[in-house]
Amino acid sequence: MAVLGMKPVQQINHTLTRKAGAIRGMHFQYPPAAEIKIVSCLSGHILDVAVDLRANSPTFMQWFAAELSSENKRSMFIPEGFAHGFQTLTDDCELVYLHTENYSPQHESALNPLDPKLSIHWPIPITEISNRDSNHPMLDQGFKGISI
What are the structural domains of the chain? Predict the structure, then answer.
């Protein structure tokens, strides 16, 4: 059994995004279903982004990004309490995700990837964003983060 951060892998997702410039995210799950993810790009090239949502974290609401591709063979570790999303930098991006928790609709949430409070720098023009992702709420002053 594969283990991430001392937790077993519970779910593996495999996705394909056809168009360069597409944005997906910024998804996360609240405790007790908060999850660790490892994301790898099997084909294509993406900018993978994680936002720290952990209450009382010194990096609360800061984002980190890394380019993942089939060429550089990098993966990104996303701890519990982080929102995750990406932008495709080429056509036909195929990703695999390892999750330490199963999908839990009652714990699922997301941030709007275009929220100016996040100030995420998407490197190329946005060509596509799903209705679901574009309708995620913008942050308000009341957001205090996630207690992990």
Answer: 3-134 (2.60.120.10)
Which tokens hold the place of 80?
Answer: 């519990």
Among residues 27, 45, 99, 136, which one is catalytic? 27
Q: What's the one-letter identity of residue 27? A: H
Alpha carbon distance 70, 11 (integer Å):
22
pTM: 0.93
103 is catalytic: no
Q: Is the alpha carbon torsion for 110, 119, 97, 52 positive or negative? A: negative
The Cα–Cα gap between 95 and 97 comes to: 7
Catalytic residue among 84, 97, 99, 136, which? 97
Measured from the Cβ of residue 135, the count of other Cβ atoms closer than 10 Å reads: 10
Q: What tens digit of pLDDT does each residue of 27-45 get?
A: 999 999 999 999 999 999 9
